[in-house]
Amino acid sequence: MLELARELGLALANSPEFINMKQAQGAFESSEAIQALMNELNEKRDRLIRLLAEDSADDLEAVSLTNDIDRLEEQLRESPLYEELVAAQGSFSTVLNAVNEEINACIGGSSSSGCAGDCGSCGGCKH
Description:
The chain is mostly helical and about 130 residues long. The protein has a domain at about 40-75. It has helices spanning about 1-15, 15-30, 30-55, 60-80, 80-105. Helix 2 (about 15-30) packs antiparallel against helix 5 and helix 3 runs antiparallel to helix 4 (about 60-80). The protein is elongated, with a radius of gyration of 22 Å. About 5% of the residues are buried.
């Protein structure tokens, strides 16, 4: 059984969706502009957390930091590299969900396709 799991893992690792996701991830992580944006975003988040933990937190600074964080997150979401990464992750997630549904159907679990794994009344699937 472990050998079959290993084969499935290798097949997933060689799937176009996984390869595309890894390439998008590499492009995202190697972008100096994205890394600068992420660093600034993380610094602002850390500063906001520290500020809110203080007894005498400056409300105006907290609002300013929150606005900065919102602006930086929007810049990140608008980045083509970010959009490509999210799309690639979604595609690979779809593959993983399909694999999980197939496994569930084969072991008699429920499936979103309505197949319970019992082929007695269904001639269309291969479970």
